Hints:
This protein has 390 residues and is of the alpha/beta class. It has helices at 18-32, 70-83, 87-90, 97-107, 118-123, 141-151, 155-178, 187-192, 234-247, 283-288, 305-313, 340-352, 360-389; strands spanning 2-9, 36-43, 55-60, 112-116, 133-137, 181-184, 201-203, 223-228, 257-260, 274-278, 290-295, 317-319, 334-336.
Amino acid sequence: xxxxxxxSIVPDGALASGYEIANAAIIAALRRAGARVTVIGFTWPGKxxxxxxxxxxxxxxxxxxxxxxxxxxxxxxxMAMLSGLTFASVKLRVVSDSEVRAAVERAGPFDGYVLNSxxxxxxxxxxxxxxxxxxxxxxxxxxxxxxNAAAAGGLFQRLLFRREARLLKAMExxxxxxxxxxxxxxxxxxSALGVASDDRSAVLPLVTCAESPVQNETRRIDCDAALIGxxxxxxxxxxxxxxxxxxVPHLKADFRIRVAGGLPSGVTSAHPGVEFAGRVPxxxxxxxxxxxxxxxxxxxxxxxxxxxxxxxxxxxxxxxSHSLRGIDHRPLNCVVTDDPVAFAGALEAAxxxxxxxxxSAFHHRQVKALDAAISRGLKKLGSLRQxxxx
Length: 390
């Protein structure tokens, strides 16, 4: 079976975000199941595809809102309003439908499509109806947009997110209705997308690396707690704001917290132990240097890849219940609470008595469940394709 994996940004090997980590895990699982996978999409500027023989590159794009100029942001908004597309999808309209169609035809023939999230599928929605498709819903995007609207600080942003939510809801309904099978990254997302039947969908338990991470029994501890993430992504920002405003004030003054990753403007903390480290060269080494990992998600859908990585590494953690969405099993050294005072107390207790565990069992369990879910989806796609083209 030959599948075209249609995505906004093709893999470049860097795995710099949760989205890229998830894509790598899904593509690897499809190939383990015996599918030939060709990826189509865009690259980041200056970052070539990591697997050019099996990749169709449509060009290079810079779609990160936080690094765009005010003029570029206004241009995207204007284009979205005029085209009826979402803000996220209009950024990818740097090539025409005919150019994408020609690229697909040159790389084909294909047995089916894997439409990876809504951004690319929404930008070129009419092009992938000639073959059966699987839709991969990384998040319930319309729900995230509603949460973003509620958290927005200004009227313009609030109205823009409300528009995104309305358009995304209709788009997700269309993509799910047309898909032969839907993969989500969390169990609750199946119901939210209206595909809760086992005949229509399955959850993909993810991993952050192909092999189980090597456990390090002699970690060097440089701080009490460490957080790393793409904080410019609004659901992550909401969780970080919750942590800094509600949890951190209850921590002792000498409790040391390091926050890595790009930060939007306005993120500060009066706590003397909070350090904003910016981008770090080795994300895994960074989290290994902490006594405990706070898992602080309070908004968004899909799965938290940082939760999965923490469990794979066997590191102690304190998690909100929202951080565990899409996770069927948590290790013994993970404390779960949504109460800020209790969260702070659990962090201090974990940092005072560091208890790592072997994360290999969690990793193996995730891989086994991921492969089983992928197999179910491919069987459904294959059987329906036979019916359609018989």
